[in-house]
Design a protein that fits this description.
The chain is mostly helical and 72 residues long. 79% of the residues lie in helices and 0% in strands. The two termini are 18 Å apart. This is 50S ribosomal protein L35.
Length: 72
């Protein structure tokens, strides 16, 4: 699998996990589903970084490459 795609999907999962974590913690319950999303997203990001060392300025370019691939 392409490292750009792994990075982008992992970062999106991590971003989508933040609101459920805050909501669960504010209500005093355990963020079970969000913790699974954090684990999956973090695993994908680590796998992508293990195969390709990204610099911070390359991350937006990786997003654009993945979006462009799905548009065309």
């Amino acid at each position: 699998m392409d490292t750009d795609l792994l990075l982008v999907v992992g970062l999106i999962l991590l971003g989508l996990a933040l609101p459920p974590i805050v909501g669960a913690l504010s209500e005093g319950r355990a963020p079970k589903a969000a913790s699974i999303m954090v684990f999956a997203g973090g695993s994908l990001v680590v796998l992508a970084l293990n195969n390709h060392t990204y610099k911070l300025d390359e991350v937006p370019e990786a997003f654009m490459r993945v979006v462009a691939r799905f548009i065309h």
